[in-house]
Design brief:
69% helix; 0% strand
Length: 263
């Protein structure tokens, strides 16, 4: 991992810790003012701010999930963030109202805005950390890829071979070495296409052409998914979708036959 990425991750982590500490203090005092048992007041901020951090991580993991799942998690994260901001603002406003006349009084709006920075910074820092970490994992070149690149010409072709003619013994020895040492397979390229979820596989499968004898074809479903710029995923899931779509077709055929017989 490049040193700059490491420095960014460390800085973002420290920012998240500082923002969590600021928000933690305000939320704990709000829990104490709500007459929660004093020992449990230390756990109250973890429920709110901890849920924000976990929820943001879940959103990144579920970025290819169905829309209703992402909306549900987003709503929960939004509620937790709004609750943390509201508690921090209310805590600051009430303390500002009780401040002594001789002290520094910033006003309710000012202290409210300042106190809202901590929970927002916590949510943003967690999000940034996960994005940087995922980007670093995707862009890290492997040693085998660098070795293969060094063995090719700038135009991308293989290194030019010598034009010196080889003797009969050299040709025989080279053939023996090739038989004894199998060729090394090239490194498999990473597929960065998003993975199609189950609902997408079903919908795309309904539009795929049928196979032999009018039956659903797994290969045609896979080709249709690839044409949409998505990854088909595991073969077992494609077989499951194939069986589902075939059952739909068989049911429609039976219904049609019953209607014809009734007519």
């Amino acid at each position: 991992m490049p040193p700059l990425n490491v420095a960014i991750q460390v800085g973002v982590a420290l920012l998240a810790v500082a923002a969590f500490a600021l928000s933690y203090d305000a939320l704990r005092q709000m829990a104490a003012a709500s007459h929660i048992y004093w020992l449990l007041t230390y756990a109250f901020p973890l429920v709110i701010d901890g849920f924000i951090a976990i929820g943001i991580g879940a959103l990144l993991v579920l970025r290819t999930a169905p829309m209703r799942s992402r909306v549900y998690v987003s709503a929960l994260v939004g509620i937790a963030t709004a609750t943390s901001i509201w508690a921090n603002v209310l805590h600051a406003v009430r303390l500002d109202q009780q401040s002594s006349p001789g002290g520094l009084a910033l006003g309710n709006i000012t202290v409210g805005v300042i106190s809202a920075i901590a929970p927002l910074a916590l949510a943003g820092a967690v999000h940034l950390y996960l994005i940087v970490q995922r980007h670093s994992a995707h862009t890290e070149p492997d040693d085998e890829g660098r070795h293969d690149a060094a063995a090719t010409t700038p135009e991308g072709g293989a290194a030019p071979a010598t034009t010196e003619p080889a003797s009969g013994n050299d040709v025989a020895e080279e053939a023996t070495e090739q038989v004894a040492q199998p060729k090394k397979r090239p490194a498999k390229r990473r597929d960065d296409r998003p993975l199609a979820n189950y609902e997408q596989v079903v919908e795309i499968g309904r539009t795929a052409p049928l196979g032999r004898d009018g039956h659903v074809s797994r290969r045609n479903i896979e080709k249709a998914i690839n044409a949409k710029g998505l990854r088909p995923g595991r073969r077992e899931r494609l077989e499951e979708v194939k069986a589902l779509l075939q059952a739909e077709i068989d049911g429609a055929n039976r219904d049609g036959a019953l209607l014809e017989a009734a007519a």
